[in-house]
Amino acid sequence: MRDGVRLATDVYGADQGEPAPTVLVRLPYDKNSRYVFFDRIAERFTARGYVVVVQDVRGKFRSEGRTLGWTGEVDDGYDTLEWITRQSWSDGIVGMFGDSYYGFTQWSAVSSQHPALRAIVPRVTCTTNAPGIATYDPGSGRQPVWLEGTTYQAQVWTDNDSYEFDVDLSRRPIIAAYEEAFDTMGKRSPGFDLIVGDIPLDPYNGPHPYDARPVPVLHCVGWFDNLNIAHMRDYTELAKRPGWAAVQYLIADAIDHENYFLKDAPATPATDHLADDTALERMLDSYTGPAIEFFDVFLKGTARPDSLPRVRWKLGHEGWCTSATWPLPEATVTELYLAEPAAAAGTVPGGTLAPRPADVSETAEWRYDPDDLVPSAAPDTFLQLRDHVDERPTLDRDDVLVFTHPASDHSLDLAGPVHAVLHAESTAPTFDIFVRLLDLAPDGTARLIVRGCAQADAPGEVVIALGHTGYRVRPGHRLALMIAGSDFPNHLPNSGSLESPWRTTSPKASLQKLRTGSTHPSRLCLTVLPDAHRGEGSDPR
């Protein structure tokens, strides 16, 4: 690098005889680990005539330099691109590929504006990929702290190694559990300290990627990814910018962050690719195939841009579809109003999701109890579909509100953004609202479709983004909307006061009130397709 730091780098396929395009990957998770399986990924790219370069980012594993994520990647990306172009095996054309943080390093390289970078394939990631905010909409105001992401910072971004340790989140103050781990290790994570101190870190020392020179982008989104909201915000924001809109492509699959499929959920030993090599080989075909097709167009020029669908998306429980835009032009917004709130604090079916608001104003209350927190949709939302747990026990808790839609003899196809508009207030000076939309099956089980959250400090209307989805609600199934005051252990519990939630030893309970009716039209906003729509691809499951 320009400051003399050396970054550990593997090169695959440099012996092909002629200079070739390069696929670059820059990641912090040990380039030679089974977790990222780049020996197997490289085989697929080199077989198609690409050189593959995989690099441990600064301060991680075999690379030198200070360990601090979400900074320095612009310059290191530029310098790596420059190094590639000077190698005898390079034809001067480079694309980038990868998930999560190694999607963020792609956006950092875009910010560097190196002329060799011709296309990127960011998967399950976002331009604002910083733990603590990235799970939800970074443009919608203050969010509850993503505790899962904070633990990731503490375990991954301490030094060159990664550390696995249990965090006793029942400790008070909660920060004490992390301090105990740092004391045991004899070192600490600077990134963790930034989150706890609420200190922002500017990830780009160049232009924001939105304002940089456009390059072709294949966004690979997971409907069940915990970065879905932030990733789709990137896609929709760039679609508004003429230079970027012309070179944007989207593939949206019914997968989670770790590439588990809805059709296989919950995973079995035979379908668990993190444990079974045969399952891994199957997963890697769908993982790399779209990127290879994309690079054949924009790096090699062996196929035309119009050979690629602008949008390929999976309709969960049905199959693949294609379209020219997202959302689809035939999609419409349907609003379901929260009604009969008096029943919402009881067990399922609770209140109702109605086509119009009631004429009268009504209310329902739910409590926040820091000693009895509402469990998260999954203990590890990076693996949401591996277990795809039944959330019916959570729906039946007496500290959540539930509203359900009647079952139908026909399917309902969701295809686009989902959000909730809630009129809420609290006895506390600050409160969190967590919303989940679930598929309530005829057998009574309930499984997640989308989720979102917001933090409020005053009574009024709260808009909560739940992300985009492609999902078929099958005949006999119905939608269930759940509202809660906590989401543990995925999110840091609210202090219920103006005290720091990290440092409080006595968080306060509170009572929240939801208002409904025509004067306070709390509602669920869905994007739906006409009844005649059907998936066009295979895999009708």
Describe the structure.
The chain has 541 residues and is of the alpha/beta class. Helices cover 20% and strands 28% of the residues. The chain is built from eleven helices and 20 strands. The termini are far apart. The model is unreliable at 534-541 (pLDDT under 50).
Chart the SSEs and their pairings:
Layout: E1 9-12, E2 20-27, H1 38-46, E3 51-56, H2 73-85, E4 90-99, H3 101-112, E5 117-123, H4 147-156, H5 175-185, H6 190-196, E6 217-222, H7 228-239, H8 242-245, E7 248-253, H9 277-300, E8 311-315, E9 319-323, E10 332-339, E11 351-354, E12 362-368, H10 384-387, H11 392-395, E13 401-404, E14 412-426, E15 431-440, E16 446-456, E17 460-473, E18 478-484, E19 510-516, E20 523-528
Parallel strand pairs: 2-3, 2-4, 4-5, 5-6, 6-7, 7-8, 11-13
Antiparallel strand pairs: 1-3, 8-9, 10-11, 10-20, 12-19, 13-18, 14-17, 14-19, 14-20, 15-16, 15-18
Helix pairs in contact: 1-9, 2-3, 4-6
